[in-house]
TrEMBL record:
Family indicated by similarity: Belongs to the ABC-2 integral membrane protein family.
Pfam families according to UniProt: ABC2_membrane
Membrane spanning residue stretches: 20-46, 106-129, 135-161, 173-195, 215-242
Top-level taxonomic group: Bacteria
Membrane topology: Multi-pass membrane protein
This protein's record includes keyword Glycosyltransferase: no
Chief subcellular location: membrane
Keyword vocabulary terms for this entry: Antibiotic resistance, Cell membrane, Membrane, Transmembrane, Transmembrane helix, Transport
Domain ABC transmembrane type-2: 22-249
Name this protein carries in UniProt: Transport permease protein
PANTHER family: NODULATION PROTEIN J
Subcellular location: Cell membrane; Membrane
UniProt keyword DNA repair present: no
Length: 252
């Protein structure tokens, strides 16, 4: 038998191959909408933030947010459907594929989907003349890390529920607040003092700061290590939670 993780990944990629046309257009149109409506529209009133043109300042955050939301979105219905409607996970359980292989194969697929979305965003930025070398080099690594940081716990959450209505709770009380209060659209320093420390609980905040540091050439080895260490902690914790919820779900 081929490597079980690769086998699981091949299954997900085969399904994506049949459905990719439905999402291909949005990969490019969403960055254009973000940059024109927020970067240029709102930027026409704000002009500069921290000494940078607003469009240049907001772009790293938008890319990180795209990766964050891709990781979360892919890990909701995609996981629940395998348990509740498609039955793919239970079918895998009757084969030599282990739970770790199921999760690894799925997360690699999520990582690929994220990198495709990030690549499309970078192409749009490059065509707009706003792509910097630091941003181009760092984006795949930072975005991959923040995507997995949210995808692993979301995968665990999705494997633990039976009702898709829980995704509304996740979106309203986790994903949306994280996007709004992670420094994507405005500096964290503008938040109320008691909220500012809470914003650093979100992995997206660390990804946004990493992206801006690389984009503007202000990254230091210490800050890079600390931000990546925090993202890694989320990935590891989410990985263990996913293993627990998968195992419980499959033994019910």
């Amino acid at each position: 038998m081929a490597n079980p993780t690769i086998t699981v990944l091949e299954r997900h990629m085969l399904l994506y191959q049949r459905l990719w046309r439905a999402s291909a257009f949005s990969l490019f149109i969403l960055p254009v909408l973000f940059l024109t409506s927020i970067g240029l529209g709102v930027g026409g009133y704000i002009h500069q933030v921290d000494g940078h043109d607003y469009l240049q300042w907001i772009t790293p955050g938008l890319i990180a947010s795209t990766a964050f939301q891709t990781g979360a979105n892919e890990s909701t219905y995609g996981v629940l459907s395998e348990f509740e409607w498609v039955g793919g996970i239970k079918a895998m359980r009757s084969t030599p594929v282990r739970i770790q292989d199921m999760i690894r194969g799925w997360l690699i697929y999520v990582l690929i989907a994220t990198e495709l979305a990030v690549a499309a965003f970078l192409i749009v930025i490059w065509l707009a003349g706003a792509l910097t070398p630091g941003l181009a080099i760092s984006a795949p690594f930072v975005c991959g890390a923040v995507s997995l940081a949210i995808a692993t716990p979301t995968t665990a959450f999705s494997a633990a529920i039976n009702d898709q209505d829980w995704f509304l709770v996740l979106a309203r009380f986790v994903i949306l607040p994280a996007t709004l209060f992670s420094g994507v659209l405005f500096p964290i320093s503008q938040l109320p003092a008691f909220i500012q420390p809470l914003s650093y609980l979100s992995p997206l905040t660390h990804a946004v700061e990493l992206m801006r540091d690389f984009a503007f050439g202000t990254a230091t080895p210490m800050t890079v290590a600390l931000h990546f260490a925090y993202l890694l902690a989320w990935i590891v914790a989410g990985w263990f939670l996913a293993n627990i919820t998968y195992r419980r779900r499959l033994t019910d």
